[in-house]
Write a structure and sequence with these properties.
Elements (H helix, E strand, L loop, with lengths): L3 E7 L6 H17 L6 E6 L4 H6 L14 E2 L2 E2 L4 H17 L3 E9 L4 E4 L2 H10 L5 E4 L6 H7 L3 E8 L5 H17 L4 H6 L1
Parallel strand pairs: 1-2, 1-5, 5-8, 6-7
Antiparallel strand pairs: 3-4, 6-8
Helix pairs in contact: 1-6
C-alpha cells in the first residue's frame, strides 16, 4: 500500500500544450525511475479542459477560464475531468493528509517557475523544488493551487516557457518529487536537522 500520493494535473488551459507535455514527461520519468524507492501512488489528470484544447483557447467552450473557478468544493463550472481531479484530491487528503502533493502543470510567456499559494505549497517549493526554476507566490483567486491550500493540501504550479521543450524542467521536477518522496515537504534540510 502506498504511503504517499502525488496528483499531477495539466491541460486546464487549452492554449498551454507545453504544460501538458511537461506533465506527461514527469509521468514518464516516474514510471521509468520510480520515486527514490518509495511506495508513492501517482495519479495523473492530463486533460482538465478538453473543449479548450480542441479550440486551442485558454477558456472552455463556454468562454470560462477554469483555473479561476476552483473553490473548496471543487470547480464551479469545470469539466467532468475537473470534478474527477477534485474528487481524487479530497479522497487522497483524507487518506494521506500531509503525505499528499498536487502538482499543476502550465506554460507561460516568460521565465519558468514554481508557484505556490500558501504555507504548505511554500514549504514544498522551498524544500524540494529550488533547482527547478524560480520560486514565487501565486495569489490569484480561484486557482487549483489556492483551492488545495484552502483545504489543507500542499500544491504547487509549475510554469514552463511557451514554445520550448522544457526537458530540463521535467527532469528537475522529477528529481524534486524524488526529494519530496524521500524526505518530506521540507526536503533534505528537515531530514538533516532531525
Amino acid at each position: 500500500m502506498a504511503t504517499k500520493t502525488i496528483i499531477i494535473t495539466a491541460g486546464i488551459h487549452g492554449d498551454e500544450p507545453e504544460g501538458l507535455a511537461l506533465a506527461k514527461k514527469i509521468k514518464m520519468l516516474i514510471k521509468q525511475g520510480g520515486l527514490c524507492g518509495r511506495d508513492v501512488e501517482v495519479v495523473f489528470h492530463g486533460m482538465l479542459n478538453p473543449s479548450g484544447f480542441n479550440a486551442v483557447t485558454r477558456e472552455n467552450a463556454d468562454g470560462i477560464d477554469l483555473n479561476r473557478e476552483w473553490t473548496t468544493d471543487g470547480n464551479r463550472t469545470g469539466s467532468a475531468e475537473c470534478a474527477k481531479a477534485w474528487s481524487d484530491i479530497i479522497a487522497a487528503r483524507e487518506s494521506f493528509g500531509d503525505d499528499l502533493l498536487v502538482v499543476d502543470c502550465h506554460s507561460l510567456d516568460g521565465t519558468p517557475g514554481v508557484f505556490f499559494a500558501g504555507p504548505k505549497g511554500r514549504t514544498v517549493a522551498e524544500g524540494c523544488f529550488r533547482s527547478v526554476a524560480r520560486l514565487d507566490t501565486w495569489t490569484t483567486a480561484g486557482t487549483l493551487t489556492s483551492a488545495c491550500e484552502a483545504v489543507g493540501v500542499a500544491a504547487i504550479a509549475i510554469e514552463v516557457s511557451n514554445g520550448e521543450s522544457n526537458a530540463s524542467i521535467a527532469t528537475a521536477a522529477y528529481q524534486a518529487l524524488c526529494t519530496w518522496a524521500c524526505y518530506g515537504p521540507s526536503g533534505k534540510a528537515s531530514y538533516a536537522a532531525a
